[in-house]
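EI: anyone free to look at a 203-residue chain?
SC: sure, send it
EI:
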Amino acid sequence: METAVGTTATVGQQTPRGRSGPGHARTVPWHWAVALAGCGAVVAAALAASPATGTPVPAHGTPQALVASAAPDPARAQLPLDCGPFPVKTALSVPARLGDGRPGTVVAAHCAAETGTPPDAVYLLGFGPGGRPEVVATLLPERENLTVSRIAVRSDGAITGHAQGYSSEDVPRFRPDISLDLTWTQRSGGWERSQTAAPLHQA
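SC: here you go
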């Protein structure tokens, strides 16, 4: 049985920012504001580094749900999204104490463009120097052009989510034709992602 902890997803605030980090190589800036590139089904891994040392964090302990005030606040973190003139918007966030015993927040965020369907990126936040929230792992980069509708943390420490996307630029933006159930599992100090196709009607 897969019991979820800390599964409450909250809508975040729009936080105006400029370029918070180097952007992905692209021919047209913020191209998703007009049309999204094709989405590929890939498996990615991102290392979760200790904020103090930059070394992989071993997994131990039992995940626990946390109140938002005890976990890193996404609104105070510099998320590595290249949004240009647009603000960064937190779409979903789940605070939890993960298997390494440290408080963290899983957050899905995107650039709040006035038009189009900007893709989400999913990050794991931890507390950095001075208690400031910082990104310790990128679980889903925005370049995969997926929109995340659900995030949860299971009692075994795995992070789960659901996302939808488009197989090509010809697919109407109001009718995604890719639907994925995502799972991130902590292995050898990093996060390994797996995914399976899901029904398109799944929210």
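EI: The chain has a mean pLDDT of 76.
SC: 👍
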